[in-house]
Amino acid sequence: MFLTRDINKARAWLRKNARGSQQTGVLVTKVAARFKPQAVHVLGQGDENAVHWFLEDKTDIRSSNYLEDAATEIQVQGLELDYACVLWDADMRYEDNGWGYYKFNGKVKWNPEKNEESKKYMLNAYRVLLTRARQGFVICVPEGNSRLNAEGFPEDQTRLPEFYDGTYNYLKSLGINEL
Question: pTM for this one?
């Protein structure tokens, strides 16, 4: 198990470790919203997408091994990869000595999740993702975007570093080695 803030380091680690027909893949929660800046596309929920993602070999761009398309906890429940990258979004973040749960509104805001059942679902989604790798995995918690626009406002209010820093620091404090 490893930890990184750089999706390209995670991809390189997966490619370096997978041998022969061993399978790699990127995993995200179904409520993950902000991975386009990492050049990661979340698979649509149709069965056909997941079939190609999971069953095609390294020569097919629809394969999980290309590390461009991410599958969700719904698509991989009950399935395993040899090596996986769990790409952590701001939907569940460690803050103030506990987990905070958020849903993206599609514009510029993450709204706190108040429904207890939804919080349990989100926690379980990460549990599923963290248990899909047989041989090893890397957790990638993005840096976020700290750049300001010409007016001095955040360039991307949906990916502020503080949405990710607490989670990364918490996981690091558990003793997970960094790539």
Answer: 0.90
